[in-house]
Amino acid sequence: MDYVLAFLEALGLTLTIELGVLLLITKARPLKSVLFAGMLATSSTLPYLWFVLPELIPSYGAFLWVGELSIVIIEACIYSHILRINYLKAFYISFLCNLASFLFGVLLQHQY
Hints:
The chain is mainly alpha-helical. The protein has helices at residues 2-25, 31-56, 60-83, 87-111. The longest helix is centred in the middle third of the chain and has 26 residues, at 31-56. The relative contact order is 0.15. It starts with a helix and ends with a helix. The protein has one domain.
């Protein structure tokens, strides 16, 4: 149960950080579309990172690379489709959103 609560906390923090970055980057897009795209992208990928990939990839280093790269690619597809932007721009946006939440997570881990 502690792991599930930690996941829900991480989900809330990730949504807050990534939606914030997404809103800053996509100012010209309709707010509802941006919020929907960001919530769908994060809510669709984070459970796999927390519950599926650790079972499939035991090495933390490989898990980190495969997990983060997969998430950036999948979220870029979601952003591209919902926000109607080209894939390269969506990839860049996804990378920045995920980099921000990853770095924030690293900072939090060093605080405890």
